[in-house]
Amino acid sequence: MQKTIIKIKEQIKSECQKNKKLPTWFYSDHLLMVEKNAKALLKEMPSADKGVVLLGVWLHDLQRVRGLNGDHQSVGAREAEKVMREYGYDNKIIAKVKNIIQTHSCDKKKPTSLEGRILATADAMSHYYNDFYLRIAVTGQRDLAEFKEWVLEKLDRNYNKKIFFNYAKKKIKLRHDLYKKVFSMK
Fold first, then answer.
1. What domains are defined for the chain?
2. How does pLDDT run across 6-28, given as a tens digit for each residue?
3. What's the confidence (pLDDT) of residue 23?
């Protein structure tokens, strides 16, 4: 399974590079950071299915990577199934990965599996270890007041709803508090 995941990672990297609408930093600063966080979490939880988690890491944002319209999680899960079928994964693995993709944002429902909680946590933590929020700011998609409101809501959701492990919260608490302070300034 590991060799196939490496091939999928290479495919996603290539797709990120080809999508001119996707920020150039998306692969290096987001996806690689989600992978790094997921691997650290997996070390703490050896009973988790590493293959399912890593497939989730590389396939969870396919809706964005491919520039497709529609619900981020549903479209992403559908696209992930296509990729996994191309690589010969069985229905059981496909179902597990689709499930963790469909719940990784914790919008409509929260993940129930350990693997799903790891992916959601790794995804949320990735926003704390780079200049994610500042890069979103320079897109100019929102005015400053809207942007600050969006960041504060996202910080709250990431920290309080998407990070499922106390030691992970402790690891990013200083960064979380600093971001909240900065984006709360008048």
1. 2-184 (1.10.3210.10)
2. 999 999 999 999 999 888 889 99
3. 84
Contacts 24+ apart (CB under 8 A), 97-104: 97/52, 97/55, 97/56, 97/59, 100/52, 100/53, 100/56, 100/60, 101/56, 101/59, 101/60, 101/73, 101/76, 101/77, 102/73, 102/74, 102/76, 102/77, 103/73, 104/56, 104/60, 104/73
Q: What is the pLDDT of residues 150-185, one digit of tens each?
A: 889 989 999 999 999 999 999 999 999 998 998 888
Cβ neighbours, 10 Å, residue 106: 22
Task: Give the pLDDT confidence of 31-50 residue by residue, as tens digits.
Answer: 999 999 999 999 999 999 99
Residue 139: phi and psi, rounded to 5, are -70, -25
